[in-house]
Design a protein that fits this description.
With about 210 residues, this protein is mainly β. The chain contains no helices and 17 strands. About 0% of the residues lie in helices and about 45% in strands. The protein is globular. The two termini are about 25 Å apart.
Length: about 210
């Protein structure tokens, strides 16, 4: 079960607070849970490197960090739930401003070649499609205040055309929440220009939103 609000900021000595809306995001945090209950976190340090974190033993008191060797911002981590391989999907902003995706099947030991999800964007949000064996739905914020949406197969290849879920000037430069529901619909949450949280849904595969 993925956490609905995956984005946080660390301040001080291990305390976690919501972090939203600034250009640089040190200590950004995203977290997910595998079908067997294994937790994974993706965090960034103040140099922009992305690390994976896994709990050691039982509970969540101690975590082991794995350096990914990937430099980027605002990572979104999801267990792909493909049968047998425990794949982890990492979506992030690269240093050139594109939204990229890479996959690991050995908890960050090695990574697939990066796939470009979008040529430009911020605040990527990834949701695993039910029964999709790693297929995803993705949303991201673009300059001008729009939010884009598209679906991809397990290898990062586009399945549907890119659509505008939120029109220009409709969304603040802020984190996005995206959920793929079991009935095939999607729910998307964002902040508008006034700071209010807006919730919209799509029942036609992400082609239209209301």
């Amino acid at each position: 079960m993925a956490l609905i609000s995956p984005t946080w900021y660390r301040q001080g000595h291990g305390y976690w607070f919501p972090y939203l809306g600034q250009d640089r995001s040190p200590f950004w945090l995203s977290m997910d849970e595998s079908a067997t209950g294994r937790l994974v976190q993706a965090v960034t340090d103040d140099d922009g490197e992305i690390f994976l974190r896994f709990p050691v033993g039982y509970g969540v008191g101690t975590w082991a960090e794995v350096a990914t060797g990937i430099t980027g911002e605002r990572p979104c981590v999801r267990y792909a739930r493909r049968k047998g391989d425990g794949a982890i999907v990492l979506t992030y902003e690269d240093v050139g401003g594109a939204i990229k995706r890479q996959t690991t099947i050995n908890e960050g030991g090695t990574w697939s070649v990066a796939t470009t999800i979008a040529a430009a964007g911020k605040f990527p949000a990834t949701a695993l499609l039910p029964g999709g064996e790693g297929a995803t739905a993705d949303a991201w914020w673009v300059t001008g205040g729009a939010i884009k949406f598209r679906t991809f197969d397990a290898f990062g290849s586009a399945v549907t055309a890119e659509v505008t879920a939120v029109a220009a000037a409709g969304a603040a430069e802020d984190a996005i929440g995206l959920v793929a529901r079991k009935d095939g619909s999607f729910a998307l949450s964002y902040r508008n220009g006034s700071g209010a949280i807006v919730n919209i849904t799509s029942t036609d595969g992400g082609q239209t939103w209301a």
